[in-house]
Amino acid sequence: MWRRLKAWPLSFWHTLRRPSVHYSLGFLTLGGFIAGVIFWGAFNTGLEATNTEAFCTGCHEMRDNVFQELKTTIHYSNRSGVRATCPDCHVPHKWTDKIARKMQASKEVWAKVFGTVDTREKFLDHRLVLAEHEWARLKANDSLECRNCHNYASMDLTRQSPRAAQIHKLWLGTGEKTCIDCHKGIAHHLPNMAGIPQG
Predict the structure, then answer these.
(1) For a pLDDT cut of 90, what percent of the chain falls above it?
(2) What pLDDT, on the 0 to 100 scale, is given for residue 172?
(3) Cys bridge to 178: 66, 86, 106, 143, which one at CB 3.0-4.6 A?
(4) Does the pTM exceed 0.85?
(5) Positive or negative CA dihedral for 109, 115, 119, 120?
(6) DSSP string computed for 88-155
(7) How far apart are CA 46 and CA 50, in angstroms?
(8) CA dihedral defined by 50, 51, 55, 59, rounded to 10 degrees?
(9) The domain at 29-150 falls in which architecture?
(10) Which value, to the nearest 10 degrees, does the dihedral of the CA atoms of residues 137, 139, 141, 145 take?
(11) What is the mean pLDDT of residues 35-61?
């Protein structure tokens, strides 16, 4: 039995290297192409299914905590009816960046399985760490998800409050700061920041 198991990889490799006895090269190539299209379609469909607000709020940790906070903001309900959903702010739009973000998000599945934030109390205890990770991600990519909708070049500074216009002109115009530097807590409540240096 052990010899058969040990010889299996070598036997499999010989089968792969040998030309097909029953199927033509064209048939195998076409079959491989069709299998690739089916795999890609299934992969992309699965990826898009995980990129919806319904998926994000499918677990009670998100639905009962941060999603309830989002519902009270202008990003959820406003006069124009434009809504930012979870993936708009937390998942990059570019495919390669999106895949990298999904791989990072696998840690969130781990946390779900082990109940790291499965109660409101646990969530509040971990909130600062979670927020800091997200702020660092947005800082590193120059608030890309914000800029997918908010473009500095398109801002009419005359329609902003004098203070907002001055700060946007001073910082965004030079590229020295990015959106998340000033707009933490824009869509969700801030964690308890007592004792954390600001700046």
Answers:
(1) 32
(2) 81
(3) 143
(4) no
(5) negative
(6) HHHS-SSHHHHHHHHHHHHHHHHHHHTTTT-SHHHHHHHHHHHHHHHHHHHHHTTTHHHHTT--GGG-
(7) 6
(8) 90
(9) Orthogonal Bundle (1.10)
(10) 80
(11) 92
**Tens digit of pLDDT for each residue in 59-116?**
888 899 999 999 999 999 988 898 999 999 998 888 888 898 888 888 888 888 888 8
Domain parsing of the chain, residue ranges: 29-150
Task: Please report, as a single letter, which amino acid is at residue 170.
Answer: L
- For residue 167 the two structure tokens come to 């700060």
Dist. CA 145–CA 126, nearest whole Å: 23
Cα–Cα distance for residue pair 126/108, rounded to 1 Å = 12
Looking at this protein, which amino acid is placed at residue 154? S
Q: What number of H helices and E strands is found in the chain?
A: 11, 0
